[in-house]
Amino acid sequence: MFPQELKCPLCSLTELQIGGGMVSCLTCGYKSESNRYLNLLSIQNYSRPCPHCTTRALVDLEKTGLYKQQGPLFICFSCGKSWLPEEMDYCPECGDPQPREGFQELIICRSSVGFYVCRSCYNKTCSPE
Asked: Cα torsion at 70, 118, 35, 45 (round to 10°)?
């Protein structure tokens, strides 16, 4: 579980824990499923598949306007895993954020310069059918 500076909808304090598909407040005892909490904040449209747990609950807090220059920028509201801005990039093929170490160079033909895509897009492009 990961503590994050997000406000509890009941007590308005920033004692939320995220993990196990739940969001809970350490102060007042508020509990909610992660997807309901994303709906409550109106940020469900910003969610992407998490590279750690694969649940569609990874949110780039900067894009939502919730990032306050402290802590991680990318947080999965299901498993609680988080990444700093310098640890993630967006895949140019699928558009999903991924940890930088998960990118592989994709070269279309021998005479062209390659570009880096996430492991999933690389496997889709380079796997024999």
From this structure: 80
